[in-house]
Amino acid sequence: MATSYQKYEIRRRNPDPKISALLVIDVQNYFSAMAQPILPNLLSTIHLCRRASIPVYFTRHSHNSSEDHGMLEEWRNGDLIIDGTLEAELMEELDRRPGDVVVEKNTYSAFRDTNLDGLLWERGVGEVIVTGVMTNLCCETTAREAFIRGFRVFFSTDATATSDKELHQATLKNMAYGFAYLVDCERLREGFLGNQ
């Protein structure tokens, strides 16, 4: 079955494990209903990356005060993720390990006012694989900013999720058209096997 983004996916490439990092965006209890359907693919992606010695970075979105939410309070009608609550915590089902970095953020982009950029460049990362939630908000904004900052971006079609299929498909079209190579679990598996 043809996917709605297929006509825009004219570029194909596999990540290079030697210079890649996996970004797992905001897989928190607040988003658990949205994240549960993609959890098997997300865990498969995490395991594939770990086997390929690709570092995994998790992000966590939350707010500490009325000073750190910018336009989000207006846009979310005050429905914000407050730090220190159960909703703000990363889901327990994630395969987190002691050495994994958790990047704390308070807006859509994982790069805005965080140390993610420095952490990646310091480690020699030139490519990022984007997974998590929400496809059309934090994942898309992070992917766009990674592209602008000079990273080659790979965007997962089956380990990202959002509240609406149309919004998910719209992001995949935008990513394929101008920002990212699309990947899924199977493509990553094949790509990493080819690099061994």
Structure, explained:
By secondary structure, the protein is α/β, with parallel strands linked by helices. The protein has one domain: Isochorismatase-like (Rossmann fold). It has helices spanning 32-35, 39-51, 72-75, 116-122, 135-148, 165-178, 185-194; strands at 20-25, 56-61, 101-105, 127-133, 152-161, 181-183. Strands 3-2-1-4-5-6 form a six-stranded parallel sheet, sandwiched between helices. Helix 5 (135-148) packs parallel to helix 6 (165-178). The chain is globular, with a radius of gyration of 16 Å.
Blueprint (SSEs and pairs):
Elements: E1 20-25, H1 32-35, H2 39-51, E2 56-61, H3 72-75, E3 101-105, H4 116-122, E4 127-133, H5 135-148, E5 152-161, H6 165-178, E6 181-183, H7 185-194
Parallel strand pairs: 1-2, 1-4, 2-3, 4-5, 5-6
Helix pairs in contact: 2-7, 5-6
Family: Belongs to the isochorismatase family.
InterPro entries: Isochorismatase-like_dom, Isochorismatase-like_hydrls, Isochorismatase-like_sf
Keywords: Hydrolase
CATH architecture: 3-Layer(aba) Sandwich
Domain count, please report it: 1
Which CATH class? Alpha Beta
Q: What is the string of helix and strand elements?
A: EHHEHEHEHEHEH
**Total strand count, please?**
6
List unreliable stretches of 5+ residues.
none
Largest sheet: 6 strands, parallel
CATH superfamily: Isochorismatase-like
Average predicted confidence as pLDDT? 92
Q: What's the end-to-end separation, in Å?
A: 31 Å
| Proportion of beta-strand residues | 15-25%
What is the fold-level CATH name, i.e. the topology?
Rossmann fold
Question: For the largest beta sheet, what order do the strands appear in spatially?
Answer: 3-2-1-4-5-6
From the helix content, strand content and strand pairing, which structural class follows?
alpha/beta
Shape: globular
Using only CA atoms, what is the Rg?
16 Å
Number of helices: 7
